[in-house]
Design a protein that fits this description.
Radius of gyration: 17 Å
Number of domains: 1
Shape: globular
Number of strands: 15
Strand content: over 45%
Order of helices and strands: HEEEEEEEEEEEEEEE
Low-confidence stretches: 1-17
Distance between the termini: 39 Å
Structural class: mainly beta
Length: about 210
């Protein structure tokens, strides 16, 4: 275990991954084609032993002529050891569809994943789509906390460009994520601070996160 922790620390340094020594939060305004539709907040609470807990809370409402036509709610509680997910309890309301995904330690000390499709055992160090931790760019598979699927992904560094951070333009690097249903662009600063994302969703519309 000590050797694994040292290796993980060395890898993080090589990728300039920030050390989360204090509680942090990322509070995003969410836009659909530049129209505000809600918020998505992430609150990270680290511990001295290297474990961390994260609460993810999303609430979107799409309106047509002032009338609500779609709602999305997602609430997840995650526990991490280093960059390895140890447990997850995620509930999602996607329109009329409701799902729950749980990851927890089984009686043999491994990880058990419970999804709407059933129960499965997962091995090794897994990560969800934890954009707050740029170590996920090293992963070939990521856990979708809404569906419970392990999705094969690829990352490609794109161009640098300014992006709004609480109303101020700051320098950022765009990373393209592919392998998911639609490509997704994630924005970080050069020192790996998460700034936002842009995704293509149903109907070819653009969903954007910007820090508020």
């Amino acid at each position: 275990m000590k050797q694994l922790l040292l290796a993980a620390a060395a890898l993080a340094m090589a990728w300039h991954v920030p050390v989360f020594a204090q509680a942090q939060q990322w509070r995003f305004a969410v836009f659909l084609d530049d129209e505000p539709i809600g918020t998505h907040d992430f609150v990270l609470a680290p511990a001295a032993d290297g474990n961390r807990s994260l609460r993810s809370d999303a609430d979107f409402r799409v309106r047509l002529l002032g009338v609500p036509v779609y709602r999305y709610r997602h609430l997840a509680q995650e526990h991490w050891r280093g960059s390895c997910l140890q447990s997850l309890d995620a509930r999602t309301e996607d329109g009329s569809e409701r799902t729950r995904v749980q990851l927890r330690t089984d009686e043999r000390g491994g990880l058990q994943l419970e999804t709407p499709q059933g129960v499965a055992r997962v091995d090794g160090c897994i990560m969800s789509f934890a954009y707050w931790n740029p170590a996920l760019r090293q992963q070939a598979e990521l856990l979708n906390a809404q569906t419970g699927a392990m999705e094969r992904v690829q990352w490609q560094r794109m161009e640098s460009a300014p992006i709004a951070e609480r109303g101020v333009q700051v320098a950022a690097v765009r990373w393209r994520l592919t392998g998911t249903a639609q490509p997704l662009d994630v924005w970080w600063t050069e020192d790996c601070r998460w700034l936002g994302l842009d995704a293509t969703v149903r109907g070819g519309r653009r969903l954007s996160y910007r820090l508020r």
